């Protein structure tokens, strides 16, 4: 079954939608769904107060959110199966603690998309803000599985405390990519600001665009061509085409095993 939620009009006070998941509404009627209570600021409202609700047949559990807004938060939190499609932008905490299934956002995403993600797939067709695939403030457990793809640009501190999984950004990124990284792979197709991989102990970061600098606490290991990136020996690995400066680090940590690959073509003067 597919649940279609169409926002009736713009809202100014954020709404949290974590109680609505594809797997939870499979045996519910339209009337039941309309009467589900959700938080809006400090009060509770019903789904039917702000959404038009429609049910359709579907081969998989599915939810579609139309006329979406950055005021719609926590979509797909703790999702385990099925698919969510968001038509428009989405608010903070998209796919928090997600364990399975697929989320596609045909727009932009606010902060903390994929926070603590454990499995499944998130595809953001536009840009995403800060802390994607990261932990909550003060936490130590970031993304630990799954795949998070952003087709546009991202903000600061993506993949913070990430332990496993893949983040692929097809645009540019701001500072602190992979800070405290302890596993997983982050690939940035575009340019990146400074402080890449700060305090990383394991995992890999691949930068295909220009970088502002590389921390002096990283050790240059040489130039590699078309490397196959593996974080663990048993992994199949991911092949990235091109010629890269390879660094290990961050040596401000004890016995680090982090891998940093930076495009030679995009940064011809980096080692001069």
UniProtKB/TrEMBL annotation:
It comes from the Archaea. Pathway: One-carbon metabolism; methanogenesis from CO(2); 5,10-methenyl-5,6,7,8-tetrahydromethanopterin from CO(2): step 1/3. Its EC number is 1.2.7.12. It comes from Methanothermococcus okinawensis. SUPFAM superfamilies: Alpha subunit of glutamate synthase, C-terminal domain. It is an enzyme of class 1 (oxidoreductase). The keyword Oxidoreductase applies. InterPro entries: FMH_DH_FwdC, Formylmethanofuran_DH_suC, Glu_synth_asu_C_sf. Keywords: Methanogenesis, Oxidoreductase, Repeat. The keyword Repeat applies. Belongs to the FwdC/FmdC family. It catalyses: N-formylmethanofuran + 2 oxidized [2Fe-2S]-[ferredoxin] + H2O = methanofuran + 2 reduced [2Fe-2S]-[ferredoxin] + CO2 + H(+). CDD domains: FwdC/FmdC. One of its GO terms (biological process) is methanogenesis, from carbon dioxide. This is Tungsten-containing formylmethanofuran dehydrogenase 2 subunit C. GO terms for molecular function: formylmethanofuran dehydrogenase activity; transition metal ion binding.
């Amino acid at each position: 079954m597919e649940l279609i939620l169409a926002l009736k009009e713009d809202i100014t006070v954020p709404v949290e939608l974590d109680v609505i998941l594809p797997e939870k509404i499979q045996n519910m009627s339209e009337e039941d769904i309309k009467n589900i209570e959700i938080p809006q600021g400090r009060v509770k409202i019903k789904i039917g107060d702000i959404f038009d609700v429609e049910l359709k047949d579907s081969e998989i559990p599915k939810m579609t959110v139309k006329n979406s807004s950055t005021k719609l938060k926590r979509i797909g939190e703790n999702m385990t199966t099925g698919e969510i499609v968001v038509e428009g932008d989405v608010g903070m905490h998209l796919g928090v603690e997600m364990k399975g299934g697929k989320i596609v956002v045909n727009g932009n995403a606010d902060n903390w998309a994929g926070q603590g993600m454990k499995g499944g797939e998130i595809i953001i067709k536009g840009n995403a803000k800060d802390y994607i695939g990261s932990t909550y403030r003060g936490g130590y457990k970031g993304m630990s599985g799954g795949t998070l793809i952003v087709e546009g640009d991202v903000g600061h501190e993506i993949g913070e405390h990430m332990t496993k999984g893949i983040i692929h950004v097809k645009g540019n990124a701001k500072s602190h990519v992979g800070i405290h990284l302890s596993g997983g792979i982050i690939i940035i197709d575009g340019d990146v600001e400074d402080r890449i991989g700060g305090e990383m102990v394991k995992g890999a970061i691949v930068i295909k665009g220009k970088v502002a600098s590389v921390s002096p606490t990283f050790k240059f290991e040489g130039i590699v061509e078309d490397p196959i990136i593996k974080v663990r020996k048993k992994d199949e690995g991911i092949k990235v085409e091109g010629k890269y400066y390879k660094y290990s680090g961050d040596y401000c940590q004890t016995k680090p095993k982090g891998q940093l690959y930076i495009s030679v073509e995009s940064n011809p003067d980096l080692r001069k």
